[in-house]
Amino acid sequence: MLGLMQDRPLAMTHLFDRAERYFPRKEIVTVSLRRVSLAGDTDDLVELLAGRRILPNTAGCSTRRDAMLTAELGREALGTDWVKLELIGDRETLYPDAGELVATAGELVREGFTVLPYATDDPVVCRRLADVGCAAVMPLASPIGSGMGLVNPYNLEMVCNRATVPVIVDAGIGTASDAARALEIGADAVLLNTAISKARNPVLMAAAMRDAVAAGRAARRAGRIPRKGYAEASSPQLGMIGS
């Protein structure tokens, strides 16, 4: 999954077209409805993303009313019932308001939306979001835009192991090894924006992320060896010369 904003539409157009060569298998692009033009201007992101699945999100919303209104706008303007639900409870950390998030998610599900909520890495919150009918959960790896990577892999792994819906790690991914680790511990996907858009070479970073996701998923399927607190020779001990 790839996240986009509309700070510099022309630059983003060129970056997106070039990145397609290296990162062609992204399946969903999420767009902030409160920051994007839906008027059909020449350089707007809706035109740029024509033919791709757009996941509108409610970034910038801090109340249930605003989130519901933004979701309805996305459904009307873009013709999709999918919504990435963001309901911010703290403007400094940009952490979601867990209580309001669960309540709003349930209301949107009852209104016929397919809800993918941005959440904390709290396994209880993620379970409640799944219980109210969310199609997936999107726990943060670390604060939005921080690039700190997986600050609490234990919690994220617990979320993945207990999940009854897909888990998409959202926010805080800083480099390719973070994406690989997220897939290794059981996540189904990662959502990327700042790690690519603010890299020194965004196109090369997109390629690195693609390879990291594939490697992480393969490693998860292969199964890592157990961690041990002692050394264990990998060569046979029997039959050695002089033994």
Low-confidence stretches: 3-24
Mean pLDDT: 82
Q: Into which percent range does the helicity of residues fall?
A: 40-55%
Output the helix-strand order.
Answer: EHEHEHEHEHEHEHEHH
Per CATH, the class reads Alpha Beta
Annotated CATH homologous superfamily: Aldolase class I
Kindly report the CATH topology: TIM Barrel
* Structural class estimated from helices and strands: alpha/beta
> If classified by CATH, what would the architecture be?
Alpha-Beta Barrel
Total helical elements: 9
Short description:
The protein is of the alpha/beta class. It is 41% helix and 12% strand.
What does this structure look like?
The protein has 243 residues and is an alpha/beta fold. The protein has a single domain, classed as TIM Barrel. It is built from nine helices and eight strands. The strands form three sheets. A three-stranded parallel β-sheet has the order 1-2-3. Helix 1 links the parallel strand 1 and strand 2.
Question: What layout of secondary structure does this protein have?
Answer:
Blueprint: E1 2-4, H1 9-22, E2 29-32, H2 45-48, E3 54-57, H3 64-78, E4 82-85, H4 98-110, E5 114-119, H5 123-131, E6 138-139, H6 153-162, E7 168-170, H7 176-184, E8 189-191, H8 194-197, H9 202-222
Parallel strand pairs: 1-2, 2-3, 4-5, 5-6, 7-8
Give keywords.
alpha/beta; 243 residues; TIM Barrel; elongated; three-stranded parallel beta sheet; 41% helix; single chain; disordered N terminus
